[in-house]
Amino acid sequence: MKFVPQSAVPSFSPFSHLLPFVAVVAVGAASLLPAAAQNRATSHTTANASVKSKAPAVTKSKAPALSSRTGLRKAPLAQTARAGQKRLAAPAAQPAARRATPVARPVRLAPPAAQPNRAPIISTVPRAGVPVLDPNRTAYPRASMHDFSNLLDAPAGKYGFLQSKGEHFVWPNGKRARFWGINVANTSLMESDHDITQIINNFKTAGFNLVRLHHFDERGGIIDLQAKDSRRFLPDRLRKLDFWIHKARQAGLYVYLDLLDYRRFKEGDGVPNAEAIGRAGRPYNVFDPRLIELQKEYAYKLLREHVNPYTGLAYVDDPAIVMLEIYDESGLFMRRDVWRTMPEPYARRFKTMWNAWLRARYKTTQGLASAWTDAYGVSTLTSGESLERGTVELPAMTWTPQLLPASQRVWATQVRRNDGALFAHDVHKKYFREMKAYMHSIGVKIPISVTGRFEDLADLRGISEELDFIGSNFYYDHPYWAKKAPAWQVPSYFHNHNPVSDIDDRSMAAGISLARVRGKPFVVREWNYCWPNRSRSTGMIEAAAYASLHDIDAMILFVYETRPTARVSYFNVRSDPSRWGLVGVGAQIFLQGLIQPSRHRIVVPYNTVDVFTYQRYHQPFYALGWATRVENDFFDGPIYRPDKSMPADLIVPPGRSGIGRYEGAPAVLHTENLRRDLAGRSVSAPQYLTEYGIVGQPAGNVTLSFDGIMFGPGVQRDRNLSMALPLAPLAGAGLRVIGHNQLQNVANGFLDEKKKRFVFGSLEPMDVLRASLDALQMFHGVPNNHDATEQNVFGTDTGEMWRDAASGRLVVSTPQFQALCGNLNGVGRVLVPGLRVRNLKSGTLIALALDNKPLVDSRHFVIKLVTDARNLDEDSQRDPRFAHLPQGQWKIGVLGQGPVTTFGRASKTPIQIGIEGRPLADIYLDRGSFELVVNGNNWQFYCDTPGARFALYRNGQSRGNQATAGANAGARTGLQSVGLAGDVRMLPQPAGAPRPLSQFPADVALVRGMG
Question: Per residue in 370-389, pLDDT tens?
Answer without folding.
Answer: 999 977 788 899 999 999 99
